[in-house]
Design brief:
The structure holds two protein chains of two kinds. By secondary structure, chain A is α+β, with helices and mostly antiparallel strands. Helices cover 52% and strands 24% of the residues of chain A. Chain A has two domains: 190 residues, no CATH class; 134 residues, no CATH class. Classes of the chains: A alpha+beta, B alpha/beta. At the A-B interface, helix 1, helix 9 and helix 12 of A face helix 2 of B.
């Protein structure tokens, strides 16, 4: 009953000090919301990356060009097909071009080698002179199946220091959607020969995707390395590691920046929770004068902190959800997804998990406790006459 | 109180021995609020500390009421040295034995009169219904039952004082201490206060008052005169 009484008084205090509590809640929300949003986006992007990697090839092959990935002859694909355990070999050309001022990715594929994460929504795979484009890009360019798209294919000449770009008209044969909004939103797929012509790399691919039977990844990798010591072999496991490392690094940098913000928030909360501190100090003096023990005063303040954290954390969660899911994470998505501006041109992937919510509650609790417990304790241990001055 | 030898003793119920209170001791702006004060107060008596402003009245009653600690000297309650008690023991003493009415009442704003009165019952685990009943019973005795639901801001000075007295009495303490009780109330309220204090004294309580208003003197058993922190009986 004693603890319930203290909780009751804490709730009454919450209602009595409305302005102070609103300011404290706003401060906590301002600190915790970016944390929840960042974790949600990071987890969402990670999940999409895992889908892309797991549904992609088992081995990606390029040439080693001074330690970097270099283009690889397409004809080598026929040799690779002969290696025991290889199911499928798909040379690809990946490059970037600007379409109506929008940076887009071109993917040149052979025959019916459609990426597994791509879901066709209408149309068919590209043949010569045709392209398939992502739904977001189609919306942006107001294109649909059967319409024509002009793309700059190569620099034909330099006239007065300005490149004269030769253009070619392509027919849109299909519009696709993808499980991975990030990768598919600005993607243009075309026949590999068309892509080779566009990037002036006839008979070469930027990489060769090799699909192998389960358990053959290592042996095929060894055979490839024996075939040519200049091959640069990246297995699915390695790609997964790179992806995880990349996200962990981004997450680590964010966590560091967040901890810095958190550290700066503590004095801010101290200042804001200090609103009416003299009034609070007097109240503590009155409580002590009427026979309250120091630990009872502290327990009441602890309940007040829990109450503030319980209000702040869901507020932060709701605002974060609206920021990411409704507003599409402006100004924060760019920290985790490269190549986008303050507003992402696609639905930013986000996964809201319970852990960040629980953590945000504890962050809020720590902030309010830091802001109140020490000052309360200081006021409670002095003689009431001093606290009441 | 461990020392039961003095518990039932009526004389020397409260005793001070060479009590000093020095603010900012050792600094250029040092203030001697009390200088070597020694006195005794009998159980059930009504004593007044009289003196001009700054004479140390509030300081001495704060020390006797365990609201403050002396810089030097000892103060005894029922034979126990209250200057050496721990924070926990002092809280227990305030809860069980001492009711203190501050000069400016120090009611908690935003809480109703009955909530202010019963605030010390909260950590005692008494439920809201009983807290309210006990608070309203006391407010009723002091003629404030109808104002039980009002916040301090809605009460007059005299009403606020009676709420503060009710708060001081809620735990049925042996000792009631009032700091300048006539300074913030009108004459009618002063007469009501005098009657209240007489009733409380008749109940056997020890009443200690600091005042420079001689209207209360006729009711007192003993008046201590304080001048510049020193007793001049």
């Amino acid at each position: 009953m004693k603890h319930l009484n203290l909780l009751y008084i804490a709730i009454r205090n919450g209602a009595r000090h409305k302005l102070r509590n609103i300011v404290v809640i706003l401060c906590i929300v301002a600190v915790v919301t970016p944390f929840i949003s960042a974790i949600a986006i990071l987890e969402g992007v990670k999940a999409q990356s895992r889908v892309s990697v797991s549904e992609g090839a088992d081995i990606y092959l390029t040439m080693d060009m001074f330690g970097r990935n270099g283009i690889i002859p397409i004809q080598i694909a026929d040799e690779i097909k002969k290696i025991d355990g290889v199911i499928r070999v798909a040379p690809r050309i990946i490059g970037r071009i600007y379409i109506s001022g929008k940076l887009s990715t071109v993917l040149g594929i052979t025959g019916d080698e459609k990426p597994s994460s791509v879901n066709f929504i209408r149309g068919s795979l590209p043949k010569d002179g045709e392209v398939v484009i992502g739904r977001k890009l189609a919306d942006y360019l107001k294109l649909d199946v059967g319409k024509e798209l002009s793309l700059g294919v190569r620099i034909a000449a330099i006239i007065d220091h300005d490149p004269f770009i030769m253009r070619k008209m392509y027919r849109v044969s299909g519009v696709f959607d993808s499980q991975s909004g990030i990768w598919a939103s600005n993607l243009v797929m075309m026949n590999i020969d068309e892509a080779a012509s566009m990037f002036e790399m006839e008979d070469f691919a930027t990489d060769i995707a090799v699909y192998v039977r389960p358990g053959y990844e290592v042996s095929v990798s060894e055979s490839l390395q024996k075939m040519n010591s200049f091959f640069r072999i990246q297995t699915k496991g390695l790609v997964k590691t790179y992806v995880e490392k990349g996200f962990n690094a981004k997450g680590g940098i964010f966590a560091m920046l967040y901890m810095l913000a958190f550290a700066l928030a503590i004095p801010a909360i101290l200042v804001t929770s200090g609103f009416g501190l003299s009034e609070r100090r007097k109240e503590i003096g009155v409580l002590k004068a009427t026979g309250w023990h120091t630990h009872e005063v502290l327990e009441m303040i602890f309940f007040e902190s829990i109450m503030l954290a319980l209000i702040s954390a869901p507020c932060a969660f709701i605002i974060s959800f609206a920021w990411v899911k409704v507003l599409n994470a402006p100004f924060i998505a760019q920290l985790f997804i490269s190549g986008i501006q303050s507003m992402a041109p696609f639905q930013v992937p986000a996964v809201f998990m319970p852990l960040p919510f629980v953590l945000s509650f504890f962050f809020a609790l720590v902030l309010t406790m830091v802001g109140s417990i020490y000052s309360t304790w200081r006021a409670a241990i002095v003689p009431p006459a001093e606290a009441l001055k | 109180m461990k020392n039961t030898e003095h518990r039932t003793q009526n004389t020397d119920f409260i005793r001070c021995e060479g009590v000093w209170k020095i603010y900012n001791e050792g600094k250029p702006y040092e203030v001697k609020a009390l200088s070597d004060v020694s006195l005794t107060i009998d159980r059930g008596s009504f004593v007044i500390f009289n003196g001009p402003s700054g004479s140390g009245k509030t300081t001495i009653i704060s020390i006797l009421g365990t609201m403050d600690r002396p810089s030097r000297g000892k103060a005894f309650l029922s034979g126990n040295d209250i200057t050496r008690l721990s924070d926990v023991a002092l809280s227990e003493l305030r809860k069980k034995s001492i009711g203190f009415v501050f000069q400016n009442f120090n009611l908690i704003s935003g809480l109703s009169a009955w909530e202010n009165v019963s605030i010390s019952l909260v950590p005692q685990g008494i439920n809201e219904k009983e807290r309210r009943q006990r608070a309203e019973a006391l407010l009723g005795k002091l003629g404030l039952l109808k104002r039980a639901g009002h916040s301090p801001e809605e009460l007059s000075g005299g009403e606020q004082q009676r709420v503060a007295i009710a708060r001081a009495l809620i735990n049925n303490p042996e000792i009631l201490i009032l700091d300048e009780p006539t300074s913030n109330i009108d004459l009618d309220a002063v007469h009501t206060l005098i009657e209240t204090l007489k009733t409380l004294k008749a109940e056997g309580r020890t009443i200690i008052v600091s005042t420079h208003d001689n209207i209360l003197f006729s009711s007192a058993d003993k008046v201590f005169e304080l001048k510049r922190g020193q007793l001049s009986l």
